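Quick check before the chapter quiz. The format below is the same one you will see on the exam, so make sure you can read both the input and the output lines.
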Amino acid sequence: MPVRQLPEQVVNRIAAGEVVERPASVVKELVENAIDAGASRIDVFTDGGGRRRIGITDDGSGMTAKDLSLAVERHATSKLDDEDLLQIRTLGFRGEALPSIGSVARLSITTRHAGEPHAWALTVEGGAKSEIMPAALAHGTRVEVGDLFYATPARLKFLKTDRTEAEAIREVVRRLAMARPDIAFTLAGEERAPVTWAAALPGAAGRLTRLGDILGAEFRSHAIEVHAEREGVVVDGYAAAPALTKANALGQYLFVNGRPVRDKLILGAVRAAYSDYLPRDRHPVLALFVMLDPREVDANVHPAKTEVRFRNAGLVRALIVHGLKEALAREGRRTAANGGESALSSFRPAFTPRPASWDWRVSPAAPVAPMPSFEGAAAPAFAERVQAAFDVGAPSADVRFESQPSGDLVDRPLGAARTQIHETYIVSQTRDGLIIVDQHAAHERIVYERLKASLAANGVQRQILLIPEIVEMDEATVERLLERSEELASFGLAIESFGPGAVAVRETPSLLGKTNAGGLLRDLSEHMAEWDEALPLERRLMHVAATMACHGSVRAGRRLRPEEMNALLREMEETPNSGQCNHGRPTYVELKLSDVEKLFGRR
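Here is the expected output.
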């Protein structure tokens, strides 16, 4: 078959397939154009999930008649001062959005520039452009797209339901609204009730207000401000406390120079920063904004501009990890699970009171017996029977009350230890409430932070076993452990082969004290089975440290003396990130006195 030149109409439709994937793509391009035009208010209306109609109205600068005629031509743009594609300071710059939309739908544009006596209108249907006509419009631009993909019916088969497409549009507008809190957005349509996000004040407070409006009040109440700056790269934004998580990464919103992106590098940095706080199956909620010189980032690597490429990717990743870790460490004791509201929701009434008319002498559960007559020696028998009714047996918890605590301990953040219940939980008293501490989770975090600090300083101190402990496992597990023996040795765990199906443990970290080497090695081997070479060495070492900390911490079921309980509380106060163990679980729950009073109806 000979080579031939494709007709311009076919070329336009092929190009449109790169830019216009679905109705949400149309909304994204048109709203970005409105933002670049300097709009302070943008209204979005859709019908049929955007398939039947999309309407975008803004109060931006508008276009002159000459600019309008040229705007629907391919590769015509007002957003590049010259041909330098490394100086991209706007959201759009290719000049493909409007002609691509016009080639597969019915496109109508009405716009008015401040220097024009009236507005101008233009339509494009299936790539055919009409003449420019005078129109009525106060200011700005109104763009309407109807019958999307009518010129390419095959594309319609790949669209989802109207509700699904409408939700994709909503997500696009949400992301753009997060990026520009100074712009008011309205999103309406037949599939949803209208929602409006008012323009917020400039600065961090305004950004948090917009994020709270979109992500919810729960995010606003648990948001931690993030800021880091180095070599011209600035990372700002808000991250939720570790207890506010999701089952997927859809709650992570990332922006580069105001452009919403989905970048694997940034997502990986977020995972690394939260690795000490969250279980492996949970993901944080956050919104991060990366600002840097346009020459240091390539926004032209994806037709839809949803991906970017950094010149110095290592710097960006390190800055994000540093900024998040610094923010989380600063608010280490602040978690949603530590608040009184979540704890209060777990309480239930202990019993259901009887109605006032109920007669205690007549129990519906038993037949009524005649009241006996007691005289003389019969009276003590009645007293014994009544006394037995108050015998409820031994307490269900190991409750040991301590003496009145000193005032200085009560004023400490985690208070003074008063008792230990079920040999697992420490109850402490503060000046304005009480705290329940999971002793194993708390000590696990303390040991973990000690291991990290020791490794960073001069290596983990070791203790040589008088008699090496032999641990038998299958050959595949033994090989896996021996391959990582150098990494384990950096944490003071020295192992060597002891035949085809056994490992000899000769040294263990002194921080762990007496530990079950067999259980520790089996847990480590399970984690190592999930590793791959793409996982950085630092993360692998932290996995080892977390597993060792779990085995070297105070176990649930161990009885603690009062001085041991108070010592644990003081260490928690001095330990970074003590609000969660290294598996992401909370280490304590706090109840304010006002919360307790609510339980008993005093408030």
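If your answer matched, good. The two ends are 86 Å apart (CA to CA).
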